[in-house]
UniProtKB/TrEMBL annotation:
Signal peptide: none annotated. InterPro entries: Bact_polysacc_biosynth/exp, GNVR, LPS_length_determ_N. It comes from the Bacteria. It comes from Peribacillus deserti. Residues 142-194 form the Tyrosine-protein kinase G-rich domain. This is Capsular polysaccharide biosynthesis protein. The chain crosses the membrane at residues 20-40, 174-195. Keywords: Cell membrane, Membrane, Transmembrane, Transmembrane helix. It is found in: Cell membrane. Its main location: membrane.
Protein backbone atom coordinates (compact mmCIF):
# COMPACT_ATOMS: atom_id res chain seq x y z
CA UNK A 1 0.00 0.00 0.00
CA UNK A 2 1.34 3.42 -0.95
CA UNK A 3 1.97 5.82 1.88
CA UNK A 4 0.90 9.42 1.52
CA UNK A 5 2.22 12.32 3.53
CA UNK A 6 -0.16 15.15 4.28
CA UNK A 7 0.79 18.78 4.55
CA UNK A 8 -0.05 18.62 8.25
CA UNK A 9 2.50 15.85 8.76
CA UNK A 10 5.15 17.95 7.04
CA UNK A 11 4.45 20.87 9.34
CA UNK A 12 4.47 18.52 12.31
CA UNK A 13 7.97 17.35 11.40
CA UNK A 14 9.18 20.94 11.04
CA UNK A 15 7.59 21.93 14.36
CA UNK A 16 9.09 18.90 16.04
CA UNK A 17 12.61 19.69 14.75
CA UNK A 18 12.33 23.47 14.85
CA UNK A 19 15.19 23.71 17.34
CA UNK A 20 17.53 21.87 14.98
CA UNK A 21 16.49 24.00 12.00
CA UNK A 22 16.96 27.29 13.87
CA UNK A 23 20.31 26.18 15.30
CA UNK A 24 21.74 25.23 11.90
CA UNK A 25 20.46 28.45 10.31
CA UNK A 26 21.93 30.65 13.04
CA UNK A 27 25.23 28.75 12.89
CA UNK A 28 25.45 29.28 9.12
CA UNK A 29 24.69 33.00 9.48
CA UNK A 30 27.23 33.39 12.30
CA UNK A 31 30.00 31.60 10.40
CA UNK A 32 29.28 33.58 7.23
CA UNK A 33 29.33 36.89 9.13
CA UNK A 34 32.62 36.09 10.88
CA UNK A 35 34.29 35.02 7.63
CA UNK A 36 32.94 38.00 5.65
CA UNK A 37 33.84 40.66 8.21
CA UNK A 38 36.98 39.31 9.86
CA UNK A 39 38.61 36.70 7.59
CA UNK A 40 38.20 37.73 3.94
CA UNK A 41 40.37 40.63 2.74
CA UNK A 42 38.44 43.53 1.15
CA UNK A 43 39.15 43.98 -2.56
CA UNK A 44 38.83 47.40 -4.24
CA UNK A 45 38.48 48.15 -7.94
CA UNK A 46 39.54 51.11 -10.06
CA UNK A 47 38.67 51.57 -13.74
CA UNK A 48 39.79 53.74 -16.63
CA UNK A 49 38.29 54.06 -20.10
CA UNK A 50 40.05 54.08 -23.47
CA UNK A 51 38.52 55.04 -26.83
CA UNK A 52 39.67 53.22 -29.95
CA UNK A 53 39.25 55.45 -33.03
CA UNK A 54 41.35 56.35 -36.01
CA UNK A 55 42.57 59.93 -35.78
CA UNK A 56 42.34 61.87 -39.00
CA UNK A 57 44.03 65.12 -39.79
CA UNK A 58 41.09 66.16 -42.01
CA UNK A 59 37.39 65.94 -41.20
CA UNK A 60 35.70 63.10 -43.10
CA UNK A 61 32.20 61.76 -43.47
CA UNK A 62 31.04 58.82 -41.37
CA UNK A 63 32.76 55.64 -42.51
CA UNK A 64 31.08 52.42 -41.44
CA UNK A 65 33.97 50.21 -42.51
CA UNK A 66 36.37 52.24 -40.37
CA UNK A 67 34.15 51.87 -37.31
CA UNK A 68 33.86 48.12 -37.90
CA UNK A 69 37.63 47.87 -38.18
CA UNK A 70 38.02 49.72 -34.88
CA UNK A 71 35.52 47.37 -33.22
CA UNK A 72 37.54 44.39 -34.40
CA UNK A 73 40.69 46.01 -33.03
CA UNK A 74 39.10 46.23 -29.58
CA UNK A 75 39.47 42.48 -29.07
CA UNK A 76 43.08 42.63 -30.21
CA UNK A 77 43.81 45.56 -27.92
CA UNK A 78 42.24 43.72 -24.98
CA UNK A 79 44.79 40.94 -25.37
CA UNK A 80 47.68 43.36 -25.87
CA UNK A 81 46.85 45.28 -22.68
CA UNK A 82 47.10 42.09 -20.61
CA UNK A 83 50.23 40.86 -22.39
CA UNK A 84 53.73 41.00 -20.85
CA UNK A 85 54.64 43.62 -23.48
CA UNK A 86 52.52 46.14 -21.56
CA UNK A 87 52.36 44.78 -18.03
CA UNK A 88 56.11 44.18 -17.76
CA UNK A 89 56.64 47.90 -18.31
CA UNK A 90 53.85 48.78 -15.88
CA UNK A 91 55.47 46.59 -13.24
CA UNK A 92 58.92 48.10 -13.95
CA UNK A 93 57.83 51.74 -13.98
CA UNK A 94 55.83 51.37 -10.75
CA UNK A 95 58.44 49.14 -9.07
CA UNK A 96 55.73 46.68 -8.10
CA UNK A 97 56.94 43.88 -5.79
CA UNK A 98 54.81 41.28 -7.58
CA UNK A 99 55.25 39.05 -10.61
CA UNK A 100 53.77 39.84 -13.99
CA UNK A 101 51.50 36.79 -13.65
CA UNK A 102 49.98 38.17 -10.44
CA UNK A 103 49.61 41.61 -12.04
CA UNK A 104 47.82 40.01 -15.00
CA UNK A 105 45.33 38.47 -12.59
CA UNK A 106 44.54 41.91 -11.18
CA UNK A 107 43.77 43.46 -14.59
CA UNK A 108 40.49 42.97 -16.44
CA UNK A 109 39.74 44.40 -19.88
CA UNK A 110 36.35 44.54 -21.55
CA UNK A 111 34.02 46.62 -23.65
CA UNK A 112 30.28 47.13 -23.28
CA UNK A 113 27.75 46.43 -26.03
CA UNK A 114 30.31 46.17 -28.84
CA UNK A 115 31.40 49.77 -28.47
CA UNK A 116 34.79 51.24 -29.26
CA UNK A 117 35.36 51.94 -25.57
CA UNK A 118 37.70 49.73 -23.55
CA UNK A 119 37.27 49.47 -19.80
CA UNK A 120 40.50 48.66 -17.98
CA UNK A 121 39.77 47.58 -14.40
CA UNK A 122 42.26 46.73 -11.68
CA UNK A 123 41.48 44.98 -8.40
CA UNK A 124 43.70 45.34 -5.36
CA UNK A 125 43.51 45.29 -1.56
CA UNK A 126 44.65 48.95 -1.59
CA UNK A 127 42.28 51.35 -3.42
CA UNK A 128 45.05 53.86 -4.09
CA UNK A 129 47.26 51.16 -5.56
CA UNK A 130 44.42 49.99 -7.80
CA UNK A 131 44.03 53.53 -9.16
CA UNK A 132 47.77 53.90 -9.79
CA UNK A 133 48.02 50.59 -11.63
CA UNK A 134 44.92 51.28 -13.76
CA UNK A 135 46.15 54.72 -14.85
CA UNK A 136 49.69 53.51 -15.52
CA UNK A 137 48.40 50.59 -17.60
CA UNK A 138 46.33 52.97 -19.74
CA UNK A 139 49.28 55.34 -20.07
CA UNK A 140 51.76 52.64 -21.12
CA UNK A 141 49.29 51.09 -23.57
CA UNK A 142 48.45 54.42 -25.22
CA UNK A 143 52.14 55.21 -25.54
CA UNK A 144 53.43 51.84 -26.77
CA UNK A 145 50.59 50.85 -29.10
CA UNK A 146 52.00 53.34 -31.59
CA UNK A 147 55.14 51.25 -32.03
CA UNK A 148 53.48 47.84 -31.54
CA UNK A 149 50.86 48.24 -34.29
CA UNK A 150 52.07 51.42 -35.95
CA UNK A 151 48.79 53.20 -35.20
CA UNK A 152 47.73 56.17 -33.12
CA UNK A 153 44.08 55.54 -32.42
CA UNK A 154 43.81 55.26 -28.63
CA UNK A 155 42.52 58.08 -26.43
CA UNK A 156 42.09 58.05 -22.66
CA UNK A 157 38.48 59.03 -21.97
CA UNK A 158 38.57 58.96 -18.18
CA UNK A 159 41.21 58.21 -15.61
CA UNK A 160 40.71 56.13 -12.51
CA UNK A 161 40.26 58.02 -9.26
CA UNK A 162 39.72 57.21 -5.59
CA UNK A 163 36.28 58.21 -4.31
CA UNK A 164 35.68 59.97 -1.02
CA UNK A 165 34.31 56.76 0.46
CA UNK A 166 35.91 53.90 -1.44
CA UNK A 167 33.89 50.74 -0.91
CA UNK A 168 35.23 47.26 -1.62
CA UNK A 169 33.59 45.31 -4.41
CA UNK A 170 34.05 42.08 -2.48
CA UNK A 171 33.35 40.47 -0.18
CA UNK A 172 29.72 41.56 0.24
CA UNK A 173 28.89 40.59 3.84
CA UNK A 174 25.14 41.18 3.67
CA UNK A 175 24.80 39.14 0.50
CA UNK A 176 26.95 36.36 1.96
CA UNK A 177 24.88 36.33 5.15
CA UNK A 178 21.62 36.19 3.17
CA UNK A 179 22.91 33.27 1.12
CA UNK A 180 24.15 31.52 4.26
CA UNK A 181 20.72 31.97 5.87
CA UNK A 182 18.94 30.37 2.92
CA UNK A 183 21.47 27.52 2.69
CA UNK A 184 21.35 26.96 6.47
CA UNK A 185 17.55 26.91 6.44
CA UNK A 186 17.49 24.42 3.58
CA UNK A 187 20.10 22.24 5.28
CA UNK A 188 18.20 22.36 8.58
CA UNK A 189 14.90 21.35 6.98
CA UNK A 190 16.64 18.61 5.01
CA UNK A 191 18.28 17.19 8.12
CA UNK A 192 14.99 17.40 10.02
CA UNK A 193 13.24 15.22 7.45
CA UNK A 194 16.25 12.90 7.23
CA UNK A 195 16.26 12.34 10.99
CA UNK A 196 12.52 11.82 10.95
CA UNK A 197 12.86 9.26 8.17
CA UNK A 198 15.63 7.39 10.00
CA UNK A 199 13.73 7.44 13.31
CA UNK A 200 11.76 4.17 13.30
CA UNK A 201 10.97 4.04 17.03
CA UNK A 202 7.35 3.75 18.21
CA UNK A 203 6.42 6.60 20.55
CA UNK A 204 2.61 6.60 20.78
CA UNK A 205 -0.64 4.94 19.71
CA UNK A 206 -0.67 6.82 16.41
CA UNK A 207 2.68 5.26 15.44
CA UNK A 208 1.25 1.76 16.12
CA UNK A 209 -1.85 2.44 14.03
CA UNK A 210 0.29 3.76 11.20
CA UNK A 211 2.71 0.82 11.32
CA UNK A 212 0.24 -2.08 11.76
CA UNK A 213 -2.75 -0.44 10.07
CA UNK A 214 -4.91 -1.69 12.95
CA UNK A 215 -6.96 0.29 15.45
CA UNK A 216 -5.69 0.53 19.04
CA UNK A 217 -8.26 -1.05 21.42
CA UNK A 218 -6.54 -0.10 24.67
CA UNK A 219 -3.29 0.89 26.28
CA UNK A 220 -1.44 0.02 29.51
CA UNK A 221 -0.27 2.97 31.54
CA UNK A 222 3.24 3.10 32.97
CA UNK A 223 3.17 1.58 36.50
CA UNK A 224 5.54 4.14 37.99
CA UNK A 225 3.50 7.00 36.55
CA UNK A 226 0.32 5.44 37.95
CA UNK A 227 1.82 5.10 41.44
CA UNK A 228 3.07 8.69 41.35
CA UNK A 229 -0.35 9.99 40.35
CA UNK A 230 -1.97 7.94 43.15
CA UNK A 231 0.40 9.40 45.76
CA UNK A 232 -0.30 12.93 44.59
CA UNK A 233 -4.04 12.24 44.71
CA UNK A 234 -3.84 10.75 48.23
CA UNK A 235 -1.94 13.75 49.51
CA UNK A 236 -4.51 16.05 48.01
CA UNK A 237 -7.36 14.12 49.64
CA UNK A 238 -5.62 14.14 53.05
CA UNK A 239 -5.02 17.85 52.80
CA UNK A 240 -8.66 18.49 52.09
CA UNK A 241 -9.69 16.27 55.04
CA UNK A 242 -7.38 18.10 57.49
CA UNK A 243 -8.60 21.43 56.29
CA UNK A 244 -12.16 20.36 56.89
Amino acid sequence: MEETISLKELFDVIRKRIGLIVSITLAAVLVSGIISYFVLTPIYQASTQLLVNQKESKPTLYNGNEVQTNLQLVNTYSEIIKSPVILDKVKEELNLPISTAILTGKVTVGNANDTQILNVSVQDIDPDQAVIIANKTAEVFQRDIKSIMNVDNVTVLSKAAVGEKAAPIKPKPLLNIAIAMVVGLMAGVGLAFLFEYLDNTIKNEQDIESLLELPVLGSIANIEETKEKSRVKDKSVRGDSIGA
